[in-house]
Amino acid sequence: MRQALDAFAPRATGSDRVAPWRYLVELGGIAVAYFVVAKLGLALASINPSATPIWPPTGLALASVLLWGYRVCPAVFLAALLANATTAGSIYTASFIALGNMLECLVGGYLVNRWSDGRATFDTPAGVTRFALISLMAATPISATIGVGSLLVAGYADDAHAASIWATWWLGDLAGAVVIAPVIVLWARNGARPSGPRELRATAAIAATASLVGVIAFSPLVGQSPIKDSLGFLSVVPLLWAALRGRRRDTATVALILAGFAVWGTLSQVGPFARTTLNDSFLLLLMFMMSTSVPSLILSADVGMRRQAEERQRLLAAELDHRVKNTLATVQALASLTLRSSESPEAFRKTFEARLQAMASGHNLLARGGWEGASLRDIVDEMLAPYADARGERILIAGPDVRLVPAAATTLTMVLHELATNAAKHGALSTAAGRVTLEWRSGGGAVELRWAESAGPPVQPPTRRGFGSTLIEHSIVSTLGGEVRFDFASDGLVCTMRLPLSDKVALA
Asked: Are 201 and 250 in contact (CB under 8 A)?
């Protein structure tokens, strides 16, 4: 028994592993829920005791597979076996019917997971369409075919009515899939609580409107009259209301509320779906349920995607505006400070162009990474590229992979540019024997970088603060919240920087 349970249990490790007791509780809860709704559905059977046009368990089983995985299949089989064995037929027909029900949700869940984004299938119009097609052509025919076939072989169904029984079985399962599964999945994924008081009021208003339409158009509370059939078109009002708000959960809930009232009225043989036989009435009702639920979910998913795209566009525009302003402010500061420290217009031009080029290189790195960040090693390679002939012999770099968010990457680009430029003009890279070692390491909640020059010209502590040291200190301390220390050794500068791990500095 334990091996059988393990075969269906999910393959997970660590915190994702499901404890045996929790797995059994899940199976028990799903089995009880499936058994209850199965008995309610079978109570509405008319053309055959085992074939009902109202079969919510299909939606429950499919949703359970999408939410909790294939491990729920034994619960579906056991509940379906008990429900059918205590209704009609024999233990053998009940076993085959239960097998069909289990294969239905197993195949349907597998195909939705593989080809339609799994539990996120209702987030896009294409996903809703694929779910409906998988339910229509792949999942529900399995249960109908195995179930009706077992009844025919065992003599519990007449060959003359086989096609009608199969169609009723198939349509009942299909309606259960497209009406029930979206409600369960969307409410389970998004949580039971709306995002705020405004959303709560809107959800309540939509549900109340759907209930009002259900009472007026479908329920036996309002007597049959010549205009009652036409009132069924009022269903469009709450469905469009929910769909145009882009709230997929509300849309699925409205479809379920309307379907519940419609089933109630049809069972009482009142409303727009009432026909001469109860089975014909329910078949017409099923077409109504599917033709309202699927299109409204597609429309709701499309509206939701459009609103998300508009929100992303708004955020991108705001981010672009912020970055442009920051870049212009940085360029302005570079120009002002470079001009202040330049001895001539030509010196200003060369220095300013070099610093702009360093900024551009940093932006190119970020652009290649989709503006999500840049690797510290890529930044080092980019800034030391002009000294490629010295790499490996005179310039040594070493350190782990560290990723920086855009603001930090841009900042550190300028810092390394200033260090490399100073080394080339006045430090170790200005002589043939000079060496530069750049090392960094992570630990203790921070990333530490050490720029060390050696075998260069004699170094004297500066008598005044230059633009380079001012930029480095400001960048490391003010922008990244770190620490910086300059040691003017006799044969070369040593710059040690400590960057605390934060939202600006992260390990890859």
From this structure: no
Give ∠ CA 342-438-429 in degrees, rounded to 5. Answer: 45
Q: What percent of the chain has pLDDT over 70?
A: 87
Among 37, 61, 50, 59, residue whose Cα is nearest residue 84: 50
- How many CB atoms sit inside 10 A of residue 381's CB? 14
Nearest to 378 by CA among 353, 397, 352, 395: 397
Nearest to 235 by CA among 271, 189, 269: 271
- Give residue for tokens 């939701």: 304
| DSSP element (H, E) containing 351 | helix 345-368
More confident of the two residues 145 and 466: 145
Q: For residue 440, give the nearest of 384, 358, 499, 388 by alpha carbon.
A: 499
Strand order in the sheet with 402-404: 374-375, 402-404, 505-507
Token pair, residue 357, equals 């080029």
Residue position matching structure tokens 């890529």: 378
Q: According to the model, what pLDDT value does residue 342 have?
A: 72
Give the predicted TM-score (pTM) of the model: 0.69
Q: How far is CA 462 from CA 3, 450, 459, 465, 483, in A?
A: 76, 20, 9, 7, 20
Beta bridge partners of 487: 494
Element (H, E) at 443: strand 435-443
User: Which stretches of 391-506 are DSSP H helices?
Assistant: 406-425, 467-473
- How many Cα atoms occupy the beta-carbon half-sphere of 66 within 13 Å? 33
Rounded Cα distance between 4 and 409, Å, is: 53
Q: Specify the CATH superfamily of domain 342-507.
A: Histidine kinase-like ATPase, C-terminal domain (3.30.565.10)
Cβ atoms of 246 and 206 closer than 8 Å:
no
Q: Is the pLDDT of residue 6 over 50?
A: no
Here the contacts of 323-331 (C-beta below 8 Å, separation 24 or greater) are 323/406, 326/407, 327/359, 330/359, 331/356, 331/359
Instruction: Spell out the domain ranges in the chain.
Output: 1-192, 193-313, 342-507
Neighbours of 388 (CB within 10 A): 10
Work out whether the CA dihedral 391, 395, 399, 402 comes out positive or negative.
Answer: negative
- Those residues whose C-beta lies under 8 Å from the C-beta of residue 468, and which sit 6 or more positions away, are 418, 419, 421, 422
Q: What are phi and psi of 482, to 5 degrees?
A: -110, -160
Domain topology for 1-192: Arp2/3 complex 21 kDa subunit ARPC3 (1.10.1760)
